[in-house]
């Protein structure tokens, strides 16, 4: 979403403080008349990190006040450009420390705003260490509200990297995401126009038994439209089919007659597979069926390593270590091919 669109959802108009808001413990000059002393004062606090003595503008979020450089806010956030421009000819209604006081939009959180200010103040912090997902989401919301393009771009690129459409899911599951997190990310992607995260989020859902269980238990609880459910089901079927073709193929070297031989060429001698070539394919397929491997990896073929799970059983049943290594290497190669086959954006931006 472009910054000008962002502005359509957030009023940049300066809000005139009420008299109640003006009555605070802080020393404040009131341009307008004094108010009754019986009203309970609003407890305000000056933010400890962003109260610059030579700042030119005071911003308020809830009961927290910020004193900041007006020119810097204008430089980075279209929201402030419009806010200050609209206020140029208007009489000042609230002054604190000689600075006009502006109230921030209600959808701007205190934490989000401080995160955004930190990102603007110390942009080099993210050169070597990108923001965490939590921080990126916080920055996304705040920068959208304030139409701050530089931080908005940082937040979106960070999320696109965490949910990369180019990088394969790690084979050991170390970068896996829970299905609730994936659903949240899909909604976020559509709200803020981040289609780059949808492929990975789609895979996290299609490969999650917990997701399918939750869907079966209460379809409404997952909070996704029917068209998404159908697409995810299609992806699940496609993954199962790709896996089935891979898992049933016997390891070893392909021969001209279409059969597969042991990679060691030993055929039962000197450490090779202890069987003849003509029974390899049938025997391997039988092993995979008997060991439950066709089902075991069908849902999550990028993370299910047959050899890791069943090496001992296969070594004990005619297969040699070299052929099992060959099968594992083929899986690693196959993963890259599979990822390329899954279309970008199994779930579409809406
Ligand atoms: Zn072998």
Automatic annotation (TrEMBL):
It comes from Lentinus tigrinus ALCF2SS1-6. Residues 1-40 are annotated as: Disordered. Residues 1-24 have a biased composition (Polar residues). This is BTB domain-containing protein.
């Amino acid at each position: 979403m472009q910054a000008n669109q962002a502005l359509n959802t957030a009023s940049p108009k300066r809000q005139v403080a009420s008299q109640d808001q003006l009555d605070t413990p802080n020393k404040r000059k009131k341009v307008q008349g004094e108010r009754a002393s019986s009203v309970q004062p609003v407890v305000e606090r000056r933010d400890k990190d962003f109260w610059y003595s030579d700042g030119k503008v005071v911003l308020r979020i809830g009961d927290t006040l910020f004193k900041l450089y007006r020119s810097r806010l204008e430089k980075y956030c279209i929201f402030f450009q419009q806010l200050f421009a609209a206020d140029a000819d208007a009489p000042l209604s609230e002054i604190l420390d000689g600075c006009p006081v502006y109230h921030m939009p209600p959808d701007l959180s205190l934490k989000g705003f401080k995160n955004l200010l930190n990102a603007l103040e110390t942009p080099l912090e993210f050169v070597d260490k990108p923001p965490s997902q939590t921080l990126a989401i916080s920055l996304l919301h705040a920068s959208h509200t304030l139409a701050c393009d530089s931080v908005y771009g940082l937040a979106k690129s960070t999320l696109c990297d965490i949910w990369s459409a180019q990088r394969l899911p790690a084979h050991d599951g170390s970068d896996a995401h829970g299905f609730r997190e994936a659903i949240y990310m899909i909604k976020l992607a559509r709200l803020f126009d981040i289609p780059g995260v949808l492929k990975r989020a789609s895979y996290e859902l299609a490969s999650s038994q917990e997701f399918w269980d939750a869907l079966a238990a209460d379809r409404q609880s997952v909070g996704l439209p029917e068209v998404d459910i159908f697409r995810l089901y299609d992806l699940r079927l496609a993954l199962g089919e790709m896996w089935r073709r891979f898992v049933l193929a016997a390891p070893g070297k392909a021969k001209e007659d279409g059969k597969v031989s042991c990679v060691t060429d030993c055929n039962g001698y000197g450490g090779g597979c202890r069987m003849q070539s003509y029974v390899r394919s049938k025997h391997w397929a039988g092993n995979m069926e008997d060991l439950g491997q066709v089902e075991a990896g069908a849902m999550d073929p990028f993370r299910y390593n047959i050899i890791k799970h069943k090496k001992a059983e296969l070594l004990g049943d005619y297969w040699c270590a070299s052929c099992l290594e060959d099968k594992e290497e083929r899986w690693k190669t196959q993963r890259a091919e599979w990822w390329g086959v899954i279309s970008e954006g199994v779930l579409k931006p809406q």
